[in-house]
Amino acid sequence: MTYLLIQLIIWAVSVLILTALVAVVARRIFMGRKYAILDREKERHSGLLIALSSGAKIESEKALTARPGSPSWSAVEEFLFKGLDTPGREEAIRLFDELGYTRHYLERIRKGNRWDQALAAEKLGRIRCQRAVPHLIEALSSANKDLKLMAINSLGSIGDEAAIPHLISILKRSLKDEEEVSTRVLKSALISFGPAVLRDLLSELDNDDWRVRATVLEILCEINDMAALSEFTRKLRDDEQEVRAKAAKGLGRLGSPDAIPALLHSLDDQDWVVRLHSARALGLIGDEKALRALKETLCDRNWQVRAAASEAMAGIGASGCLELLRVYIEESDQYAREQALDELLRADIYSRVAGLLEREDILKDHGKTADMGIGEEGQTLSSRSQACSRPWGQISSGRRSHRYPARGPGTKMRSSRSANH
Amino acid sequence: MEILSLKLITWFNHLVLAYYFAANGIYLLLLVLAAAFIATHLSRLEYGRYQNSIHPSVAPPVSLIMAAFNEETNIVESVRSLQHLGYPDYEVIVVNDGSTDSTLQRLMDGFSLKRVNVIYRDAISTGRVRGFYVNPDFPKLIVVDKDHGGKADSLNVGINVSRAPYFCSVDADSILEDSAITRLMRPIIEEPELVKATGGIVRVANGSVVKGGRLVRVELPRDSLSMLQIVEYIRSFLFGRAGLSQLNSLLIISGTFSMFHKKTVQAVGGYMSNTVTEDMELVVRLHKYLREKKIKYRINFVPDPICWTEAPRDLRMLKRQRSRWHLGLAESIYIYRKMLFNPRYGRIGLFALPYQLMIELLGPGVEITGYFVVSLSFFFGIVDKYFFLLFIIMAVLIGIFFSMAAILLEELSYRRYRGLKDVLKLLFFGVVENFGYRQLLALWRTQALFKFLFSKKKKWEFVKKSGFTNEERNDRAV
Fold this sequence. Notes:
The complex is a heterodimer of chains A (421) and B (478). Chain A contains 23 helices and one strand. Chain A has a domain at 255-380 and 396-404: Leucine-rich Repeat Variant, CATH 1.25.10. Chain A is mainly α and 421 residues long. In chain A, helix 15 (260-266) runs antiparallel to helix 16 (272-285), helix 17 (291-297) packs antiparallel against helix 18 (303-316) and helix 19 runs antiparallel to helix 20. Chain B folds into two domains: 2-26 and 361-459, no CATH class; 61-356, Alpha-Beta Complex (Spore Coat Polysaccharide Biosynthesis Protein SpsA, Chain A), CATH 3.90.550.10. Chain B contains 14 helices and 14 strands. Chain B has helices spanning 2-45, 75-81, 103-111, 151-161, 180-190, 224-246, 262-267, 278-292, 315-335, 346-361, 363-380, 385-413, 420-432, 437-454, and strands spanning 62-68, 90-97, 114-116, 119-122, 129-134, 141-146, 166-171, 174-176, 195-204, 209-211, 214-217, 257-261, 298-309, 472-473. In chain B, the strands form two sheets. Chain B has a ten-stranded mixed beta sheet with strand order 3-5-6-2-1-7-12-9-13-8, with helices on both faces. The longest helix of chain B is centred in the N-terminal third of the chain and has 44 residues, at 2-45. The termini of chain B are far apart. Strand 1 of chain A pairs antiparallel with strand 4 of chain B.
């Protein structure tokens, strides 16, 4: 019995090996020929791309007509897609229509297998085919995930406003886990519409679901339109921290000085992410009015907020860097000093003034040396915090009330300078 | 006594036979799954170019972390090749792990780097960091110099320095294709909440033409050892990992080129420093953590040939490399032995880890013992000559079949080796590897297992590479 089984296996495996061998060689020969024919067809139609690149009108359409799927069809299709990035873009789009490519893609969306459908949707998006919009909107309710994804992306590329409500609706469902589709691709598609999407998006800012509000703010932030300024400012007072953080980020992008009072207020937010984005936003706005508050934020309990504050101060310009230098010279809070020094080093300012500070004894006058307390080897944050003695008093904001302890367990902070000295 | 010995040998023969059928049955299953997986992937590949049209702000930033220890031969070219990757937002963090050669100096010279001092925050505890080096003309690049602490420690430094939500570990001796990050990120962009890590396929670059740190022409090497490894890599990646990925049971994604969600890795504490193969250990730990927290996730394999590496060119280095891999496998399974056959860990506990234990870890040992005992049985007349020959023929033929099937998969999918002559050469080495090479690897792996079980010394084996020569075929004599 065992003998028979082994003999059978040997025969079966031998047949499989031979089949694999023949398949590999046959495939290689077949593909070699296929690509040789394709290369010939490309050679034959190479004038098409040259004509499109020069922006010329193509007269000899008949010579370009081919059966779908044939090598000639593929060669012309490749050149037409390449032509979309040339001055002959409009002509290429016309040829897609005239030569039957658009019709073929629309058919494939309806009748193709799942991959053909998705590929057709993707191609229609690249052509920015207005005619395809109803078909692509219909595809949004398809069970084929790939088709749905490509339809979303293509609707964004085409930019027909009729698609906006459908895309927002699918975004809301996906954020509630009712729809399995990439929110990243959805966001990208909505961003592609630019200011045209504002009206529909702004009406979602009062949605009950905070995830919808936060995502809408994220999209608005990328669209970066001043019309959303008041809404961003209003959302700085949202109940949900994520929404407030996105609002602060959006205000930074807009860069309007009108947002400064609200952002200064948000520097005292209970949530560190909101404080971080508020500090960054103030840096992006770049107004000196924010310097004092940012300087205080250098003593925030969270290191990421401190880093954002110092970066923002440097971003404001010379006056910000001067304030950072002042913090480094005068401040007794080691974290604030370290953060200021870190930023001065990054901006390549410290190296320019270090000699001056030493020569003029500026640091000594303030009871410090150039390296005092900066990143001593192996010294943990908690041990060093005991050395910080400057009394801040009990101020209730998140920025100042817990100055050092809030940090991940075991997190250490060192300066790379320590190894040198 | 003699009767007992004979009974024992007969019993063992049956065991080997049963094991052999079971192992090959699983391989066959993986092959079928891999074929389906690759077919789907290829069908989706063409419209994958939609990624180029998505808004840059929705493509998550990525940190490429390259740990470098005594990599002076390759380092500048490797880093240079990373400067041209087609992805909207990425940074390159090179961590010099206390190299004793001129790795750091070459980097400084090659990119005119200037030392800067920044605060280093070790959210994951690491060895001492000595300094940071940057050049404003290469804003994507930061070089970190640190005390020698091993690859895992270096990668942890990279994670601490990283400012992106995803990081990708890249070996200093590897070459990435321009679309490498884009392809590796596709599963993440499409299912950002679900996919926590992705691993790319690694191919052998020996013999190919490398210019300016980029692979310009894929060619086969002239030396047999590299050829054998090429066939082996195709088989291992194209049907081994692709099949396991289909079952969401991937425990190994090559440290040479793999992408991770940083927060998830930070949540499990980063790479473990005292392991032999930190990449596998991390992936198993991620599975454990995500399953225990009941978080829905996927760890995906991307079968596109997007990362090329230099394979060892002599037997001594090859032995070191394979011993290290096997030692690492044994270690990872030992560390997470409580997950074995534990239903709490779903298919990881019930299939993936038992598969790695029974087939990958113990398989070579069973194979070597099988050769010995079946030969002994033949010698003592327990099995007749006919059965003995049939068994050997079957074993060899099955080995050849899996190599052929892998080459067929390569031919149906990526066809990176262009000429008919190349394919015939691959097929030839697919046959040849079953006569000596496979057995040699099994022997080394068995030795590594014994070393793991009985030796206290399990130190990191350094595999020396000769480096890619610029603008010429990367062929060196063995």
